[in-house]
Fold this protein.
Amino acid sequence: MLTTSLASLRLRNPVMSASGTFGSGWEGRTFADLSRVGALVSKTVTLRPRHGNPPPRIFETPAGMLNSIGLENKGVDWFLADTLPKMKSLGTTVIVNIGGEAIDEFVVLAERFSRAGVDALEVNLSCPNVQEGRLLFSTEPRLTEQAVAAVKRVATVPVFAKLSPNVTDITAIARAAEQGGADGITAINTLIGMAIDWRRRRPVLGRGIGGLSGPAIKPVALRMVWEIARVVKIPVLGVGGIRSAEDVLEFLCAGATAVQVGTAGFADPALMVRIVDELPSLLAAANVTLADVRGALHAAPAAAPAEGCARAGHERVRG
Ligand code: SIN
């Protein structure tokens, strides 16, 4: 009933972890049966190890969280030897998120992970926390297209492009990713924000600025998923502030094919599985299927309430 086709993948359900919020999944295995989630998405892996940014790197905000991790990870060699086998043993679809300072690095990573038998790649074109700024491919349509096309030339698995909301028009970037051959778009990464300790006259985060995630950004994410789904034919993976089965259905209604649960998982690592459990009864109570809800906002005439959403009891998205 929840089975979801995503590019050439067949997922058990549309609920997966968001990169950077759930490790490789291995860390969360004692909290819930992770074979029950649609997919696990790894923290970004880079070619070489990265130490990340100076602390503090996390700060809780009234409706979310700021992070400035800076892509800390042990690099691809470590990930392939240590982490990937653990991730694969969890019994669900494995998506590895890759990050590069230059297109060549994305290519090497895509080749190595394809060979290692991951199910899909998510290309992180959008990390806001790197000093060099070179990782932020997704503020430029041309660079986005080039990076995605280069990865697609070597990848033997589906490639999803993770985009930044820190742009004027995310649809131009999404179109560029599609043009480059992306099999899907992940939207959105974090919104660049800041917290200040006025007593010390200092920013709270070691790097000064960071990426905002959590419920605070859900309306922005919904809007961007809706905008992207209007202009591309490839599937959209919705992410941003999802905390419940209700939230999942809102994203599907906006045009997402699948969703990623991120910040909420820090407080409740079993949340994804609970959402999977709750979806069937929520749909049954509204007498609809996932297919009725998915993309319903796009099927409806502009001025009228979306039938699938209304039937699913989602009065809030109708306004
Ligand atoms: C980070 O490691 O800084 C977060 C990753 C991201 O936002 O892409």
In short: The pocket of succinic acid is lined by residues 20, 44, 67, 69-71, 124, 126-129, 189-190, 211 (CB under 6 Å). The chain has a mean pLDDT of 93. Residues 4-281 form a domain with the TIM Barrel fold (CATH 3.20.20.70).
